[in-house]
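lol so apparently i was supposed to do this last week
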Amino acid sequence: MSRERTRVIRIGDRVIGGGNPVLIQSMCNTKTQDVEATVGQIKALTEAGCDIIRVAVPDMEAAEALKQIKKQISIPLVADIHFDYRLAIASIESGADKIRINPGNIGSADRVRAVVEKAREYDIPIRVGVNSGSLEKNLIEKYGGVTAEGIVESALHKVRMIEELGYENLVISIKSSDVLMCIKAHQLIAGQSDYPLHVGITEAGTLASGTVKSSVGLGIILYEGIGDTIRVSLTGDPVEEVKTAKLILKTLGLRKGGVEVVSCPTCGRTRIDLISLANQVEKMVSEFDHLDIKVAVMGCVVNGPGEAREADLGIAGGIGEGLLIKKGEVIRKVPEDELLNALKEELIKMQ
Ligand code: SF4
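anyway here it is w/ iron/sulfur cluster bound
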């Protein structure tokens, strides 16, 4: 189903599906048992714009730590469980707002039933997650390898297992590190299910390659109207995941707010240190996330004033100085080393 028509599911105090805004998830890379470090990271992620946070629950100490973590954070907490159904039950009792399991590796039907009964008691959703890396042998044989069709069949089979227990408070995620396979799998499953979809390109890689793969994969899937929550998966600081996810949503017109920085690629005409300035501007504007504007950082007067006219605020570089432009009007000339501050002052005035 397109995101307009998926079921509405509540996760803590947020709702997804049914045309609600696409929410951003990330996952902590701290040890969940280390409550202080985990809470610190969740706060940094919340500040960056994360809507829902997932943590790994590898043992009972981690499941127990969720109680303390929950008390100190303001966004819904998802517990990620593999293999041991008792960890799922303990996480729910500790206050998890949602659990992520792969029913295929939780064990016998009785164990899956015990988890489902606990989720029902606490009225929290279960995310049924399937990764291409853990696709069942019979499906690999049936489809002659790991395929989008196999991933979808695996996910829907697990969903049915839980539906047969009378529980439909579900979210589905199907992930693959193969971008094209991931896109195809989402197209297929969207035609066969109306549960909300959590979308991500798994094991996408480090900052550069992960950003490209996630942007292409998530970009296409979201543009087709599929996906209710997203996670950009990067080998690095999860704050970068959230920043990238925000930019993907903003680029697709799925999220408003924030300062969009456009900057020129520089060329032989550039006479100021524009690369460093553009990077500093991008960092500085993150303080002004509540504004919804465009800032242009341009290297010279050839395209600078034109591009800056399209923006709310802009700089066009000169020799050791720059023109400060607001709503298409040149306000003043500013020495190069004062350009960043001058922009910041203008942003403060626009608040
Ligand atoms: S804006 Fe000026 S400096 Fe920047 S790429 Fe264009 S011509 Fe070159």
